[in-house]
Design a protein that fits this description.
Shape: elongated
Distance between the termini: 57 Å
Largest sheet: none
Number of strands: 0
Oligomer: single chain
Length: 245
């Protein structure tokens, strides 16, 4: 208990020093780093209270996002969700809900409603580029939790073709990790961006090789147009085959 009290006293001293930093950027960043460190050592309520000191909405949102994520890692899901609701910046709020959903999924909990909260936050992002990138991130994480069809729906809804292709590449990779190779190949072959199509096919081939489906992996690799990525994939498969002997 004495050690914890001493740590709290030193954190308070750090906050007092940081508040008096003249440069606004340095002050906001330093305060954010302090409250995030407080959350990492499980001073959650104190970290949330201290985050109110941060004047910058952007840095404050970042801080609360990190605090919410630390809560989720500790299994404090309700508290994490409540903290995430406080985040003013839509981008950071979406990322917080996404991260919380991932932690909940690890515990075997239903996370569809949490991903919905993330998507609702994404809709509030005004900048089209940030909005598209946020959709990609959410789609990727949904696919990681096995919500493939929902992830694909989000990917299709991405307006920007570059971000959309990236999202499809991510989902195809997750489908391959789940051994849903036919579905993964179907998605990959329909990616219009050559680079991301190549990356998707390379990822699928890698997963096939990982479970020793070498002939299928080679067939997939030979579908890759990009010579560098095809060569890399062939090298990786050759290495896996070599260690089988």
């Amino acid at each position: 208990m004495k050690t914890k009290n001493r740590a709290e006293e030193i954190f308070n001293e750090a906050l007092k020093v940081a508040i008096n930093i003249e440069d606004r950027y340095s002050r906001a960043k330093t305060l954010k780093d302090i409250v995030c460190e407080m959350a990492k050592v499980r001073f959650y309520s104190k970290a949330l209270k201290a985050s109110n000191i941060i004047e910058s909405r952007w840095w404050r949102s970042w801080a609360i996002k990190d605090i919410a994520c630390e809560m989720a890692k500790a299994g404090l899901y309700k508290e994490a969700l409540k903290a995430a609701e406080r985040i003013e910046n839509a981008w950071f709020r979406a990322v917080a809900f996404k991260d919380i959903a991932c932690e909940m999924a690890k515990a075997g909990l239903n996370v569809e409603n949490v991903f919905e909260k993330a998507l609702n936050s994404v809709k509030e992002i005004e900048d089209s580029g940030y909005r598209a990138s946020a959709k990609r991130i959410v789609a990727r994480e949904m696919a990681k939790t096995g919500l493939f069809e929902k992830a694909l729906k989000i990917a299709r809804d991405i307006e920007d073709p570059w971000w959309r292709a990236w999202a499809f590449k991510d989902v195809a990779g997750e489908l391959a990790r789940a051994k849903l190779f036919d579905r993964a190949l179907d998605i990959a072959n329909n990616i219009t961006d050559k680079r991301y199509r190549a990356e998707a096919l390379k990822s699928i081939a890698g997963e096939m090789a990982r479970i020793k489906l070498f002939d299928k992996a080679l067939k997939t690799v030979r579908m890759i147009d990009d010579r560098r990525r095809r060569a890399e994939a062939l090298r990786e498969i050759a290495s896996k085959i070599a260690v089988e002997d």
